[in-house]
Structure to design on (606 residues):
């Protein structure tokens, strides 16, 4: 599919015409300094001056003309995909744009007043020029919709926060998702096998903790002002400073907005947001620039250490964005003193690292480094195009068959050794009821769970015995027990908490294995082929119940010849949707971006 990707900012446009079947970039266009006499245009890297003050609509028109003009790269545009910075809590998947969706998007302008209005203006311009092709929006915030509550919420009065939609949304999600998929493909692993700290370092900058395929923390919050030192934003700041600026410096809301968004960060510290110029001045002895480099690297390193702690370790640190890709000095400074995490840098490889469309990944860690340090070329336009093609492809080839929904109450899978301790040597579980998944059964036996805060009795065991102990509980159970169980797919037990189990013959404390099961769908290979899905794809499923209709996002697909088609929700999720026996769900969104992007990334240097 030939997709035109439009990545619009308030004063710039990045665009690409991409053949998603081969991940080939057919056309690359960059327009900078829109609305000024200095507006410049780059087509496939060749720069030219634009005549007059070109606004956003005119810039979009020029790009569409380049992509559709005579002899323009062989074929029609089949779809247009737009990057929208803020999707709020409503938009967590690629979305086909119609009047209803655009109206809902306009209501979010207050959440991103500098970013969303230009995107909507670009969408309007593109739709007027290309009215007969589908237009898709992808959202910077969508990748971070998996943030757990503890990482998402601010410690503010709940009613006020809910009324004003105050929470942490995170940004640069398209870039972080691309990094995750590209890194996994480069290392020939699945995202679900990796703990990645993704560092998007450009004029805007953020860090994301990606734990086994899900964003679990990120440095930007409700707005892009939180987090790292950036080109013109200062990042984390004591709110008391803002109160003082209001009270003692007479800064009103507009003045603070301008100060925080346009006059802070590297610009405020040095008078420029150009990292290359700052590095050159620092080398010549400029103390302000030396301080700026130190502050910048310190903040990134602090977040990396924090995110390693949150994920219980890490496997990859990846750098992307203009600074992340091009500043060997900044990568060196950021990675200093991380040897305790297993990070060892090859200084020669770091200095030589270059990435481009032909070699989009370079390794800068030493061969003895347990943690891989990588440089990844940012390619948001490719990621956008692939997501749009996946959405349109699934819509065209999708089927309306409904998926049975089952409630998975708290339960435990135990090893034979643990059964021996709790029930007696050589004990065999007795089948109480066969389960829908072939060979699995609910046992007659129950155990008690004992946590730091409380206990839960009569927790059903499942059979047959397994190679590892695994206890699956709900969020409500977490509170009762006093444990913090990560959301995981079954069998993914690394860095999970333990618990004490009690049976007829006594107690045993397992060191790990307690999880909150990630909502998932079991599929046979035949089911997956019918739905156009692959193992580990994520989908959205809509459940129509009596007055409690709910769409569940981030549902992982598990494919095996041993599986029978069925979606599993835990008790809390089922109660929220009013699920009853015999309930079914409708697959409303499909996505399998990782394989396409990952395959392309294998061309990078190791």
């Amino acid at each position: 599919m030939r997709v035109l990707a439009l990545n619009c900012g308030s004063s710039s446009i990045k665009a690409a015409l991409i053949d998603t079947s081969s991940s080939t970039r057919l056309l690359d266009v960059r327009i900078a300094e829109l609305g000024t006499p200095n507006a410049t245009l780059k087509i496939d890297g060749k720069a030219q001056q634009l005549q007059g003050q070109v606004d956003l609509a005119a810039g979009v028109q020029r790009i569409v003309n380049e992509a559709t003009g005579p002899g323009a790269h062989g074929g029609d545009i089949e779809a247009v995909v737009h990057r929208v910075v803020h999707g709020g809590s409503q938009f967590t998947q690629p979305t086909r744009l119609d009047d209803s969706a655009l109206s809902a998007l306009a209501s979010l302008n207050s959440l991103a007043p500098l970013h969303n209005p230009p995107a909507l203006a670009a969408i309007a311009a593109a739709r007027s020029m290309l009215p007969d092709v589908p237009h898709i929006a992808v959202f910077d915030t969508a990748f971070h919709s998996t943030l757990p509550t503890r990482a998402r919420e601010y410690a503010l009065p709940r009613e006020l926060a809910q009324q004003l939609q105050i929470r942490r949304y995170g940004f640069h999600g398209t870039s972080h998702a691309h990094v995750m998929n590209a890194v996994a493909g480069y290392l020939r692993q699945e995202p679900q096998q990796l703990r990645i700290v993704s560092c998007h370092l450009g004029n805007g900058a953020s860090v994301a903790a990606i734990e086994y395929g899900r964003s679990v923390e990120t440095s930007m919050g409700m707005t892009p002002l939180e987090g790292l030192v950036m080109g013109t934003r200062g990042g984390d700041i004591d709110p008391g400073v803002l109160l003082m600026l209001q009270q003692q410096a007479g800064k009103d809301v507009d003045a603070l907005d301008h100060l925080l968004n346009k006059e802070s960060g590297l610009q405020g510290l040095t008078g420029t947001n150009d990292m290359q110029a700052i590095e050159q001045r620092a080398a010549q002895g400029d103390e302000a620039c030396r301080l700026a480099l130190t502050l910048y690297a310190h903040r990134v390193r602090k977040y990396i250490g924090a995110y390693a702690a949150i994920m219980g370790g890490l496997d990859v640190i990846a750098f992307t964005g203009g600074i992340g890709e091009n500043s060997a000095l900044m990568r060196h400074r950021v990675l200093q003193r991380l040897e305790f995490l297993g990070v060892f840098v090859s200084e020669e490889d770091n200095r030589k690292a270059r990435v481009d469309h032909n070699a989009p990944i370079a390794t800068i860690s030493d061969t003895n480094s347990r943690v891989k340090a990588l440089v990844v070329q940012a390619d948001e336009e490719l990621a956008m195009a692939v997501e749009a093609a996946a959405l349109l492809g699934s819509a065209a080839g999708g089927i309306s068959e409904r998926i049975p929904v089952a409630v998975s109450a708290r339960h435990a899978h135990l090893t034979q050794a643990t059964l021996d301790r709790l029930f007696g040597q050589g004990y065999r579980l007795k089948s109480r009821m066969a389960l829908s998944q072939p060979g699995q059964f609910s046992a007659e036996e129950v155990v008690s769970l004992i946590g730091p805060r409380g206990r839960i009795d009569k927790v059903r065991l499942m059979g047959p015995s397994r190679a590892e102990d695994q206890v699956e509980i709900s969020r409500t159970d977490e509170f009762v027990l006093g444990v913090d169980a990560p959301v995981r797919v079954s069998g993914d037990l690394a860095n999970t908490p333990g618990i004490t189990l009690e049976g007829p013959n006594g107690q045993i404390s397992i060191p790990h294995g307690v999880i909150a099961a990630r909502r998932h769908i079991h599929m046979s290979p035949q089911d997956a082929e019918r739905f156009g899905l692959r193992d580990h794809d994520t989908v959205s499923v809509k459940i129509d119940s009596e007055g409690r209709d709910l769409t569940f996002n981030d549902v992982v697909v598990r494919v095996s010849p041993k599986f029978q088609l069925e979606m599993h929700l835990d008790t809390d999720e089922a109660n929220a949707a009013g699920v009853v026996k015999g309930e079914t769900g409708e697959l409303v969104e499909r996505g399998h971006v990782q394989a396409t992007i990952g395959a392309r990334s294998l061309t990078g240097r190791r």
